[in-house]
Amino acid sequence: MHINETHDPSLTSWVATANDPASDFPIQNLPFAVFRRAGSTETFRGGVAIGDQVLDLAALDPATVGEPASAALALAQRDTLNDFMAAGPAAWSALRLALSRLLRAGAAAQQHALVPQAAAEFSIPARIGDYTDFYTSIHHATSVGRLFRPDEPLLPNYKWVPIGYHGRASSIGVSGQRFPRPKGQTRPASGTDAPNFGPSRRLDYELEVGIFVGTGNADGDAIPVDAAEAHVFGLCLLNDWSARDLQAWEYQPLGPFLAKNFATTISPWIVTLEALAPYRAPWQRDAADPQPLPYLDYPALREAGAFDVELEVLLQTATMRREGQQAASVSRSNFRDSYWSVAQMVAHHTVNGCGLRPGDLLGSGTQSGPEPEAAGSLLELSGGGKAAITLPNGEQRTFLEDGDTVVLRGRAVRPGLPRIGFGEAAGTVLPAR
Amino acid sequence: MHINETHDPSLTSWVATANDPASDFPIQNLPFAVFRRAGSTETFRGGVAIGDQVLDLAALDPATVGEPASAALALAQRDTLNDFMAAGPAAWSALRLALSRLLRAGAAAQQHALVPQAAAEFSIPARIGDYTDFYTSIHHATSVGRLFRPDEPLLPNYKWVPIGYHGRASSIGVSGQRFPRPKGQTRPASGTDAPNFGPSRRLDYELEVGIFVGTGNADGDAIPVDAAEAHVFGLCLLNDWSARDLQAWEYQPLGPFLAKNFATTISPWIVTLEALAPYRAPWQRDAADPQPLPYLDYPALREAGAFDVELEVLLQTATMRREGQQAASVSRSNFRDSYWSVAQMVAHHTVNGCGLRPGDLLGSGTQSGPEPEAAGSLLELSGGGKAAITLPNGEQRTFLEDGDTVVLRGRAVRPGLPRIGFGEAAGTVLPAR
């Protein structure tokens, strides 16, 4: 993706908070969400983050942005972003350019179109027709595999197939999601036949990147890997909550089901691929790793197939919340360490003719880094529940407890460029019903 | 479910073809679909099958059906049945009763509201938010398991957990669906590392029953098993097309993905649970089988937990079609042989708090009977591709070839009662692109 005037690091905004180097939302970012004023009965509509404000797209006169952006603006004003996503890269780019010019220092301030983020509530940004979860971190696959199969941590298909499976769309919630601890069957105790039943005792988070499909493909037509990124609208944060004890008992032979489908939390903000263009990274491969099959290989892959996005998990227990302590960092990793790229996920998903639709969501799978402390789940950090981690206030965790809030954060950072942040995806575990 | 006047076997209709004992659609059936005149640009709307006709619900004046059915009629006139499904059993029942009275011999004929089924085209009857596929036939699970694990055909969780996994909603099509043979990776030849890539060589059908959710549940709230059937709108036929060679290579550790998500074909007609009430059957269990856990057990299960629905697979090759030969029967089974019931699928799906929505679709999994010739897939009928089956014209099949059309049929039959049919779910394999 070409770098254009919207990426110019010298740009500043008339929204002063966007010029704070610590802000997730400088004028070079411009991520999209769907929002309304919190507690109101207003219609949800598209918004763009700028500093600590939301630019209310429905409050903008189309004449303000001019052609060709006004048609894109009309689509982005709706109560989901699906139609805007379906409009394709030229429309996304035209609106980004117009909003960049509108928000720049020197342009006429549009105070009437700003809503403080702190006064907004968000909805899922798109009607998600289908949700697919991948498994692209080789570090996660290896460390989880080692817990179950010490002799063969990584299965023979891993370096050939971008492994994925279908998840549940209806239980995806936006940051702030709260859900009861899931109940279900778990493996029988040794020497007994009957499984146990009750609330999960091994409830976990998974640190993932979400990928929103923009333009789809016709059923039966594969998307070539070198055209795949043009079908991607942008990235968000995604917590694929997982009940490890339910999963261990149910997952053979058809994969995870009740262990995953009770809740999935995403960030409200979708950072576009265009915003991320200056933050690309080389693809991570060892010399001994096989070349991908031709349908997964493309020239730009090796130089810039990955995204350099720092990811972080933070945890706030009920005790910490009661005592006024902020969420504590538990681990950090980076999306650039993914074994499979975004373009490869899209190409693989459609190689059999499967149709993707605007607003479909792909999860990257848990993003764990190469170091043990960069693991994206408690399962890994606790060595399968054997070694508790200790929080700054002295509390310990092997898995999540009732009242725990997990916060995911992400940011693209590059020397000489402003930081491009993802906001956060926060979710809270309630007691089992 | 109580038997009421709509089930009276002596009822006949002023639509003469409904009174033919060979019709799938006597007045006791009254299944719902969404249709329009074929080749037209009319709006799709709800319809009910009667003999060889569709009763066009949008052509009925609400006053014709009176209260309380008129409100239900208004919902069933829309271009998907989701809102009607959400209205619940009282609404479904009220409309069924009103339509039964409207269509009875002696009532004023409403010829203006009839469209010949042969002149209609159908759409997916509901907007399917999520599609879940189960694995409820112990005969299928055992015979497929034996191909992979001769020592342990049935996994230890099978008799405790109604195994299910998430499928792809966007690739579900209505009867008449045509799709290219899927391409993908298959297991490396012995002694080599790199997988093969190309069109699937082991393309198969799966004979399943589809279950449409009517009323949903709030996220976090489980549906008790003894209340579960009130959440089910009705049943249809479902072909879960499967590429066995893609599946064998991709499915570890997270389950089937590209092997399934290229196409799934359902019948246009949904037969309501109320229509099926006289055709219930005892639950099938051996004395040695364990009692289900309490959340899966309910008093009515043993006497009438199952549905006595005969299922059949027919195959028409391109040669047969060219030579004017009808599709030939390949195998027959019965939904009553399912190990897990419809109510148990719903209770299990929601026990962790997963929310179901009106219009969600559950697949029963391949329904194979206890006899080898009652297998619901070619994988089983051909012993894993080792022994071809021979069709009446002498052609042989281990797996499907290009141009093959697979037709599923189903019917509930009971002495002294009219036959209640499901119509058909037909789909055709096109050459790979």
Describe the structure.
The structure is a homodimer of 433-residue chains. Chain A has 433 residues and is an alpha+beta fold. Chain A folds into 2 domains: 5-123, SH3 type barrels (Roll); 131-430, Alpha-Beta Complex (Fumarylacetoacetate hydrolase, domain 2), CATH 3.90.850. Chain A has helices at residues 62-65, 69-76, 82-86, 89-103, 138-148, 244-250, 273-276, 300-304, 318-322, 342-350, 378-381, and strands spanning 32-37, 45-50, 53-56, 114-116, 120-123, 131-134, 164-167, 172-174, 177-180, 183-186, 196-199, 203-204, 207-213, 232-239, 242-243, 264-266, 271-272, 280-281, 306-307, 309-316, 328-334, 361-363, 389-390, 396-397, 405-412, 420-430. The mean pLDDT of chain A is 96. Chains A and B meet through strand 7, strand 10 and helix 6 of A and strand 7, strand 10 and helix 6 of B. Chains A, B: Its EC number is 3.7.1.2.
Briefly summarize what is shown.
Chain A has 433 residues and is an alpha+beta fold.
Q: List low-confidence stretches of chain A.
A: none
- Indicate the CATH topology of the largest domain in chain A: Fumarylacetoacetate hydrolase, domain 2
Rg of chain A, nearest Å: 21 Å
Head-to-tail CA distance between termini of chain A:
48 Å
Largest inter-chain contact set: A-B, 65 and 65 residues
Assign the structural class of chain A, choosing from mainly alpha, mainly beta, alpha/beta, alpha+beta, or little secondary structure.
Answer: alpha+beta
How much of the sequence lies in strands of chain A comes to 25-35%
Describe the biggest sheet of chain A?
8 strands, mixed
Oligomer: homodimer
